[in-house]
Amino acid sequence: MSQLLWPLVRFLLLIEVAASVNFFHHRYEQLVQALFNVHNECPDITRIYTIGRSIQGRHLYVLEFSDNPGIHEPLEPEFKYVGNMHGNEVLGRELLLQLSEFLCEEYRRRNERITRLIWDTRIHILPSMNPDGYEVAANQDPDAIGYLTGRNNANGIDLNRNFPDLNTFMYYNEKNGGPNHHIPLPANWKSQVEPETLAVIHWMSRYNFVLSANLHGGALVANYPYDKAQEQRSRGYQRKSNTASPTPDDKLFRKLAKAYSYAHHSMHQSPTCGEQFADGITNGASWYSLSKGMQDFNYLYTNCFEITLELSCDKFPPQKDLEKEWLANREALITYLEEVHQGIKGLVSDENNNGIAGAVISVNGIGHDVTSGDQGDYFRLLLPGTYTITASADGYRPQTVTVTVGPAGPSLVHFQLKQDTIKGPMEKKAPATSLSSKALQKKVVPRAARKKTQR
Ligand SMILES: [Zn+2]
């Protein structure tokens, strides 16, 4: 483009990118309109798709950002943000709409940081996982709204207590041997989950998500797995101090949670909502234990690392606060997204350079594996350090390498596996658990302790 034309084009672009989301509480139709407005403004880098419908028939729309929307590009990680899982916790929903518009506008303004993010990442944004609950909450008189009105879906079910309980299998495996990753679902799981939960589980199975956050309200803290404690001694409603229930990736999860809390205007100072959290972060179980939550399910069933963000003391903040809240969270939302680019990633292929799907990537000393996606690419989030990594796949000889991970960007570590001609297919791994789901259900699993601030 000629040097003379460029200032004119930039000027026109700025005029065209008028704010379309604005700061107000979006009812369902307005939310849909806002998503399509962003898509129309940035058609080349966005796609809208639905992962299913709520009980009352509202679409669970996702807005995707990518330089190639609709396509998984090998070595480009998939990221997701999920908002409004509790219908009455609405700030996340509005922040995700603001974020969508921000990404689109800044890309068009050639903001280098945002452009790089969209080129290197496939970002999926689900502003509302519980649109039915939202409408119930939004219909209330703001001054008279009940604390839990609209929290649940239209069947009265809390979606963050509705995922299959894989922690029980994991704790069993911890004692008796067995994995804490890609734990199979119980046989009857589909009949036990709500349509919104089912849609999200199918979504997680379709995309090889690497990193995620689940946006809530009612407190100001970044909460990381596990949410469910191994033993829940308290059954009552009283508060109690729990012991932390860390994952094998505890240090990484703390870093991820801090990435958000420190980029947020005030979360790291933990000043509000009557509860103190050092650095503005907490292990879920050490706050209070909850069962069948979404973040634990991400970790135990998929390759995805998810944290739960509590973003405001007020679950349904007044409209006048929305702009201030956006400014308090904007940098944190972008910073957390960028966290998907760390550790190692690479391709697992055979001797003819065909990608091997489902290859297992193990890190010595961290008892939690990830697997490669359909095209053989894998992503393993890791803190800086030196690691011994092994790739293995059925019918191939495992390959082990030592790699040093630096603080910036992910290191590329490819594996080319040789066919195991001597032994034939690798010895089949022991099933995830030798205990039937029926037997597990008989084990006493007390209900999660409840308290006023419920994530
Ligand atoms: Zn919540």
From TrEMBL:
Region (Disordered): 231-250, 423-455
Job description of the protein: Protects the body from potent vasoactive and inflammatory peptides containing C-terminal Arg or Lys (such as kinins or anaphylatoxins) which are released into the circulation.
Protein name: Carboxypeptidase N catalytic chain
Quaternary structure annotation from Swiss-Prot or TrEMBL: Tetramer of two catalytic chains and two glycosylated inactive chains.
Top-rank EC class of the record's enzyme: hydrolase
SMART domains assigned: Zn_pept
Cofactors required: Zn(2+)
Subcellular locations according to the entry: Secreted, Extracellular space
Listed InterPro entries: CarboxyPept-like_regulatory (IPR008969), CARBOXYPEPT_ZN_1 (IPR057246), CARBOXYPEPT_ZN_2 (IPR057247), Peptidase_M14 (IPR000834), Peptidase_M14_domain (IPR050753)
Domain Peptidase M14, first and last residues per copy: 24-340
Basic residues composition-biased segments: 440-455
Similarity comment text for this entry: Belongs to the peptidase M14 family.
Gene Ontology annotations for the cellular component aspect, listed alphabetically: extracellular space
Keyword annotations of the record: Carboxypeptidase, Disulfide bond, Glycoprotein, Hydrolase, Metal-binding, Metalloprotease, Protease, Secreted, Signal, Zinc
GO molecular function list: metallocarboxypeptidase activity; zinc ion binding
Entry annotation: catalytic residues: 310 (proton donor/acceptor)
Reaction catalysed by this enzyme: Release of a C-terminal basic amino acid, preferentially lysine
GO BP annotations listed: peptide metabolic process; protein processing
N-terminal signal peptide: 1-19
Documented EC number(s): 3.4.17.3
